[in-house]
Amino acid sequence: MGDGVMGYGLRxxxxxxxxxxxWVLRNFGERPTWQPLLGxxxxxxxxxxxxxxxxxxxxxxxxEHEEAAKDAVADTIIYLADYCNARGWDMHxxxxxxxDKVLQRDWVNNPQxxxxxxx
Length: 119
Hints:
This protein is mostly helical. The chain has a single domain (about 15-105), classed as Orthogonal Bundle (Helix Hairpins). The protein is about 65% helix and about 0% strand. It has helices at about 15-30, 35-55, 60-85, 90-105.
């Protein structure tokens, strides 16, 4: 594993996928692609729960809810990296190819579809 796994060294989505794959195989073996997908969905539920309870001011402190939210965000990304591995996708390429498209949209000047051209 790279030197940034347990720290904050400069890392990439490639590193995430590369470091995650052997860990998943060792701990869970080959499994259907829907398993990491459902894991990501479950973590999004945890994120929603932490956010809701923080805004309601119940079942913990704001700091506890913030930590739970951060953990859920990270776990969601990890599950999505696992899903990309299971599908044979390069997560870095998937994310940045889509980001390039998103950044071309201008919803202020083109509120109907984000682009100057009509569909």
